[in-house]
Amino acid sequence: MGRIERGCAKSSKRYVMACWFVLHVILSSISMVTAEHSVCLALQPSPALTPFVDKLPIPPTINVSNGTRLVLGAYKITQKLHRDLPPTTLYAYGTSQASASFPGPTLMAKKYITTSVRWENHIIDTEHMFTVDRSIHWADPPNGGVPMVVHLHGSETRSDSDGHPDAWFTAAGDVGPTFTSQNYVYPNDQEEALLWYHDHTVGMTRLNSAAGMVGLYFIKSVVEEALLLPSGPFEIPLVIQDRNFWANGSINFPDTGIFPEHPNWCPDYYGDTILVNGKVWPYLEVYRTKYRFRMLTAGNARFFNFSLSEPSLSFVQIGTDGGFLNKPLTMKTLLMAPAYRTDMIIDFSSLPVGTKVYMNNSAPIFFPGTPPPGTSIDNSPGQRQVMEFRVVAPPPGYNMPTVYVPSILAPTPDKNLNPYTDVQRNLTLNLSPPGTPFTLLLNNHRFMDPATESPKLYTTEIWSITNLIGTTHPIHIHLINFLMLDMQTFDQGRLNAGNCSLALQFPDPLSCFIEPPQPPIDAQAGWKDTIIVFDQKVTRLLLRWKPRYGVFTFDPTTEPGYVWHCHMLDHEDNDMMRPLVMRWI
Questions:
Q1: CA-based R_g, the chain, Å
Q2: Residues near 315 by beta carbon (within 8 Å), at least 6 away in sequence
Q3: How far is residue 201's CA from residue 178's CA, in Å, rounded to a whole number?
C-alpha cells in the first residue's frame, strides 16, 4: 500500500487522480471488513447531523494585558459539539478542569506588555485517546501518559518559550530532551495581530490538536483601538476545523495506516463535518452593520476556499498572519491553508432582517487538485457548508456604533532587496527515497539531522522553496514574519529527466520554468508566518531575521532553537520539520 501512495504522489496530476481512486477503493474495502478500526482516508461517515441548529459559541476570554502571571493547564473534559451528538471527550486548555474548553480561552494581550504563562499538564491518561504510531519519531515518555508542549504560533519570543517539539512534559513528570521550564514568557513586542496557541509535541502534534488543544491569542495596541473598526460584540473570532464523529460523540481518528512501515500513521486527516468555535455548522445572529471576523483555520490538513451565498456580499480582508495589510482587499472567495489567520470585514447593512447567508467552502481535499472519483469524504455536503449568518433586528433603542474601514491600514511592506541579500537558500519539499520508510522531507533531511538553516541575526535571506512532492503544502517558519516575493511553475518531468535547469531563467530553452515569476495571490499577501507552497512551483520568500521594526528584546540564539515545518500536522509529525538555529556571527 505504501508503494501505491508513493507512486500516486510522484505521478503526473492526471495519473494522481486515477491512482488515488484505486487506493480509495482498496481502502474502502478494507474498512468494510474491519469496521472496528478507523482506516486512513476511508473513515466511516459521521452520523447525520442537522446543520445550523447550534448558536456560535464565543470562547471565554482572559485579559493578560496587565502583565500578571497566568496558569493554564491541559485537562481531559467532555463538551457538546452538536445538539444531536452526545458529549465528546477532549483534551482542552483552561485555568481549571471546570473552566477548560474547546477551543481554549482566548488570551487578550497588549503590545509591549509582557505575558507570563505557566503551562501545566493535568491529563493523567496512561495512553492517548487516539492511537499513537510508535514507528515514527515521537516523544515516547518512559512512564507513559500524554506529553504536551505549547507553541504560541506567530510569537516573537525566546526559543525556550517557543514550544520546541522536544521540550514536552507529562503529568507524571517525564520531560523531553530540550525541556527547560513550564514557565513561558511572551514579550508582545510585535505588531498587533491574531496569534494562536496549540500543542507542538514531536510526533504527536496531530493527535493533541485533533483532541482539542488549541486556543487564540490577540495582541492589541492603542493604535488599533483608536481605529473605528468593528469591535466588542462586532469583532468575532472564528476557529474553523474539521472532524469525523462516531455515534457516541467521540472523535473518529484513524488508527490503521496505509503504509506497512507505519501501521497507525495516516498522511492526511480530513473530517466530514466542519466545526466553528467548537460547534458543528453553527449559526450567528448579526445586525445590519459591519462585522470584523478574526479567522483561524486550524484543521490537521484541510484547506478552505470560503465564499458567501449572498451575491451582493464580499469579504474585505484587512489583515493576515502578521497583522494589518497595507490596504483592504475586496474578494468574493477567501483561500486559507492550515494555520492561516485572516482579519476580514463583512457588511450586512444592505440585507433585510430575516435574510440568511451561508459561508461555504469549495476547496477539495488533496488541495488544489480535483478529488478522486468516489471519494465520499469530499463529496458529502458537510464539506461544503461552514456556518450560517441570520440577519436580525437589534433590541429597541439600540445605538449601532459608528464603524469605519480605513483605506490605508499599515505601511507598505518593503520588498527592496538593496543594498544586498546576504544569503540565498535553495530548499526542497520532497519524499523519502524508494526503499526507505515513507516520510515527507524538507531539503532531503529529517528533523533530527543536524541543522542546515542557521541564519545570522539582522541579515536578509531569500528562500527559494521547490515543491517536488506532487501535493501542495503550507510552510510555517518560527520567530519572524516574512514576505512572499513570487512563485514560478516548472516542468517536473523535464527536471526529473535531467534535461533542464532551475538555475536558468525563463524563457531560456534549457530552463525548467514554463512561465515568468508570478506575484503572490491574495492569500499570500502581506506579512506571513505560514505560506502556501504550491505543487510544481518554486516559491520565493524574503526573510529578514529581525523584528518588523527595531531589534529583538531577547536573545534568539539561546537553546534549544526554533524550527520550520509543514503545517499539515500529519506531515509535520513524520519528519517534515527542520531545526532553525539563529546565530550572531
A1: 23
A2: 306, 308, 330, 331, 332, 333, 334, 344, 345, 346
A3: 11
Residue 244: left (phi > 0), alpha (psi -120 to 50), or beta? beta
Of the candidates 1, 81, 85, 96, the residue with the CA atom closest to the CA atom of residue 40? 1
Q: What are phi and psi of 178, to 5 degrees?
A: -110, 15
Using CA atoms, how far apart are residues 575 and 428, in angstroms rounded to an integer? 14
Long-range contacts of 82-86 (CB under 8 A, 24+ apart): 82/49, 82/53, 82/54, 82/273, 82/279, 82/280, 82/281, 83/50, 83/53, 83/54, 84/47, 84/49, 84/50, 84/53, 85/47, 85/49, 85/245, 85/249, 85/280, 86/248, 86/249
Average predicted confidence (pLDDT) for the chain: 93
Task: Sketch out the chain's domains with CATH numbers.
Answer: 2-47+232-391 (2.60.40.420), 61-226 (2.60.40.420), 423-580 (2.60.40.420)
Asked if residues 295 and 336 have their Cβ atoms less than 8 Å apart, the reply is yes
| DSSP-assigned letter for residue 551 | -
Chain centroid to Cα 198, Å, comes to 10
Q: Which helix (H) or strand (E) holds 280?
A: strand 279-280
With contact defined as beta carbons under 8 Å apart, do 386 and 282 qualify?
A: no
Burial (CB count <10 Å: 0-12, 13-18, 19+), residue 188: buried
Confidence at residue 36, expressed as pLDDT on a 0 to 100 scale:
64
Between CA 219 and CA 226, with CA 221 as vertex, the angle to 5 degrees is: 135
Encode pLDDT of 367-389 as tens digits.
Answer: 987 666 656 667 678 889 999 99
Largest CA distance in the chain: 73
Q: Can you read off the three cell numbers belonging to residue 142?
A: 518512559
- 386-415 pLDDT, tens per residue? 999 999 999 999 999 999 999 999 998 888
Q: How far apart are CA 512 and CA 510, in angstroms?
A: 7
Comparing 361 with 29, the larger pLDDT belongs to: 361
pLDDT for 414 equals 83
Going by their DSSP bridges, the two strands 115-121 and 69-79 should be labelled as: parallel
Judged on CB neighbours under 10 Å (0-12, 13-18, 19+), 497 is exposed
- Pick from 277, 280, 274, 489: nearest CA to 362: 274
For residue 243, which phi and psi values (nearest 5 degrees)? -150, 155
Per-residue confidence (pLDDT) for residue 152, from 0 to 100: 99
What integer pLDDT is reported at residue 371 of this predicted model?
62
Instruction: Give yes or no for a contact between 575 and 446, defined as CB atoms under 8 angstroms apart.
Output: yes
Mean pLDDT is lowest, of 195-199, 217-221, 413-417, 545-549, for 413-417
Q: How many helices (H) and strands (E) does the chain have?
A: 7, 30
Tell me the backbone φ, ψ of residue 115, rounded to 5 degrees.
-105, 130
Q: Which of 191, 107, 180, 117 is nearest to 156 (CA)?
A: 191
Angle at 299 between CA 340 and CA 3, to 5 degrees: 110
pTM given for the model:
0.94
List the beta bridge partners of residue 565.
476, 577
Report how far apart, in Å, the C-alpha atoms of 552 and of each of 51, 217, 332, 574 are: 47, 20, 38, 32
Residue 193: phi, psi to the nearest 5? -170, 170
Residue 340 cell numbers, joined: 492561516
